[in-house]
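Worked Example 4.2. Read the sequence first, then its structure tokens.
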Amino acid sequence: MSRDRWLIIFLAYIIGLLATGVWGFPNAHPKVEQWLLVIVSLGLIPFGIAWFLKKWWRRCPSNKFWLGVSLVAILGAVYFQFRVPQPAANDISKIFAQNSYYQLVTVSGDILSDVRLTSNERQKFWLKARYVTINKPDNSIEKKVNGKLYVTIPLGIKNELYPGQKITISG
């Protein structure tokens, strides 16, 4: 196969990966209509390009080749969609996305990384969240969660923080 054909296949794969942006990123569960739109467009666009190129390119590849290009683009879109990480049902990112308007939350968990100083003289680290308490004016809701949080806290905390330590943070 010539260099031109490999370039076309490579570009088809890249376009297939980029086509997943049609349904928004990250979209864990695209609708059937969105899948059909991507698959039909990735299936038809190479044949439109082939029809256009046959007028100016004498050695334009055959229709079998363009069918293969379509399949490579579709497989690129499917591969990318299945490689996107899917958060668990009780992931902490979902808790904060749903309840972002509440003022005070309390998160309990374990420190995952070494504690470092930021340029603003604050401590930063990764926290593996175990429980989150959403404090409303009338009641509090505690939920068990999974996931990691990037945390920055004031330097004024006197105790030594270390990986594996269990802490509770409010904010």
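Now turn to a second chain, presented in exactly the same format:
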Amino acid sequence: MPADTPHRHGDPARSELPSGLPSDAVIADLADVFGLLGDPGRMRILLALLGGPLRVNELSDRSGLSPSATSHALRLLRSHRVVEAHREGRTAEYALADEHVRDFLELGLAHVGHTVLVHTVATPDATPEACDPPAHP
């Protein structure tokens, strides 16, 4: 992108990588966040929050996790600034921390919506070849 072209914040299609890598601390933080996102239960919580703020019991119902597991997942997500809590008295509503998180989730959904994912499933008739992605000519 030319230097005089305005950069639209939050538009990954317009982003450019810096000439060097980020610091080791930034890379470690990014790896931690991606690791958190790799858990299906936490991903269900985050996808539920795309619709707006929810309480722990609502998130538990929607994610299929127990209230205890939901609370634990929310603590991890809060500690990495992926979600935030808004308290009113004794209750708290959880929401996505910011538009970056929303953008990332929406981009992820768009990505898996147009790609074929190959998951290894342990079945009696599964062979290693059946789990390999198709070869490109």
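Notes for the reader: Residues 1-9, 126-134 have pLDDT under 50 and may be disordered. Residues 21-131 form a domain with the Arc Repressor Mutant, subunit A fold (CATH 1.10.10.10).
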